[in-house]
Amino acid sequence: MAGVPPQVLAIDLGTSGMKAALVAADGTITGWAERPVPLQVLPGGGAEQDPVAWWDALREVVADLGRDHPEHLRAVTTVCSSTQGEGTIAVDADGNPLTQCISWLDMRGAANLRRQFGGFPAYDGISVRRIVRWLRLTGGMPSLTGKDPAAHMLYVRDEMPGVYDRTAKFLNVLDWINLRLTGHTVATVDSILTSWVTDNRDAARIRYSEALVAGCGIDRDKLPTIVACTDVIGTLSRDAAAHLGLPESVQVVAGAIDNTAAAIGAGTIEDNKPHLYLGTSSWIAAHVARKKTDPVAQIAAVPCAIPGRYLMTALQATAGANLTWLRDKVVEYDDPLVGAGHVTRDEGSIYDAFDLMLRNVPPGANGVLYTPWLYGERAPVDDPHLRAGFFNISLHTNRSDLLRAVFEGVALNTRWLAKAVDRFLGAPVTSMVITGGGAQSDAWCQIFADVLGIQIRRDAKPVAVNARGAGWIGAVGAGHITFAEIPGLMRQDHLFEPNPANRATYDEVFDVYKDLHRRLSPIYKRLNRSRR
């Protein structure tokens, strides 16, 4: 269309809900729509979402974009998705879901994992021989918490044998969205990663390892074909085109899971340039030139969207989820935080309310500490038993102190993680892009700068990072730009420099934080070994 450049319909499916935006090749985002999708937390460590609810929500958000920006929606030539990772959906031969999506938070398959991969000698119930093979071929290994598809698929096999028999393919979240868009069952080099069945030693040729597939306990024909993130996998199916109100000629680029897409959307394309993502979960990620693994800190360089490169990813299980818990489970019905509502694209109103509350609370939260392990932790320790807690509360403690302690607790955990990242990259990180919904908070950005002791550069539109990343991956796949052009298109709106006056406070608090973990981890294991 005259005056409107080609648009990518960028799908951003996170744990909290479905979002979509219209993204041009230069990164310009026109329109934004979202719908919440509930997460069901089940007894015994279960966590599920309804994939059909995702698909219905996608229709609604695309309809919103069409009402608000009809010319730009008509200019859509490509669809590309960024989704939460490490979920698992069993589908039948017609592509119908046989299960809910077993979420990346779901730990029910941990025992099934140990039964499948046990042996002598063993580490925490897993054969050392298998661990060595995984690390050599994939760069990582299944989470012993059961929070990835390797365990999810075994859980379905063992606990739902009738469903397993009818399963044609096991798909990750991204793969299922692509199936609904095109009718094709494929997995991307990053979405298949946590099935732990691929040989990732050559970044240009990610493929199934016959040895790993033979030992995974899942029939080979239930695993999808692997494609690159920038591959065009087809055009919209007739049903998908009708569902979304788009032409069948619109092409679909494979896309990526959220941390892969965020690394593109943050503009951190060059090697060893990290970004910090603050969403429901959190991570530090950076593109690197070679496959490498730190098994102690649970950090690995894994396949990504950029050909010939890997993405170092260090995942923190819960970040913004701590604030959601505080807002939804602690505040009262007449609280101003409730009136602030959910985070929106334009206002970030809940973060405005948080920032107001923190103005009069000094660094160190008046002595209150918080550990942000609401649902266990992934890195720098992989421990499903850890839980969150406030420490050193007194009669003088108020809710603003608790709020600052939550902000600081997430940042302290990130500092713990960042030390391992420095070792992995071979040099201290001195500056980092911050992005994701939590970056809307000025107070939190400054806390991260102070706690980490580095410069924090804020993405100008942090909530849109995954959609922007999906848009750029789609634009590369469609041939409109190259990855090398992306850093020049990225925009940041503020630099947060560390305040030297707060260094001693946070150094002391960080030492106490690590000591709390050392002392409490055995207690949490005792309390929670049967309560996942």
What percentage of residues falls in helices of 4 or more residues?
25-40%
Poorly predicted tracts of residues: 342-348
Identify the overall geometry: globular
Mean pLDDT over the full residue set: 92
Distance between the termini: 53 Å
* Sequence of strands across the biggest β-sheet: 20-21-22-19-18-25-26-27
**Gyration radius, to the nearest Å?**
22 Å
Helical stretch tally: 17
Proportion of beta-strand residues: 15-25%
Number of strands: 27
The description of the largest β-sheet is: 8 strands, mixed
Q: Class by helix and strand content? A: alpha+beta
Write structural notes for this entry.
- By secondary structure, the protein is α+β, with helices and mostly antiparallel strands.
- The chain contains 17 helices and 27 strands.
- The strands form 8 sheets. Strands 20-21-22-19-18-25-26-27 form an 8-stranded mixed beta sheet, with helices on both faces. A 6-stranded mixed beta sheet has the order 3-2-1-6-17-16, sandwiched between helices. A 3-stranded antiparallel beta sheet has the order 4-5-8, with no helix packed on it.
- The longest helix has 27 residues.
- The termini are far apart.
Element layout with pairings:
Blueprint: E1 7-13, E2 17-23, E3 29-36, E4 40-42, E5 46-49, H1 51-68, H2 70-74, E6 76-83, E7 89-91, E8 101-102, H3 110-117, E9 122-123, E10 126-127, H4 128-137, H5 149-159, H6 161-166, E11 169-171, H7 173-182, E12 186-188, E13 198-199, E14 207-208, H8 210-215, E15 225-227, E16 232-235, H9 238-244, E17 251-257, H10 258-265, E18 275-278, E19 282-288, E20 293-294, E21 299-303, E22 310-316, H11 320-329, H12 336-340, H13 349-358, E23 369-371, E24 389-391, H14 399-425, E25 431-435, H15 442-452, E26 455-459, H16 465-477, E27 492-496, H17 503-528
Parallel strand pairs: 1-6, 6-17, 12-15, 18-25, 25-26
Antiparallel strand pairs: 1-2, 2-3, 4-5, 5-8, 7-11, 9-10, 13-14, 16-17, 18-19, 19-22, 20-21, 21-22, 23-24, 26-27
Helix pairs in contact: 3-5, 10-16, 11-14, 14-15, 14-17
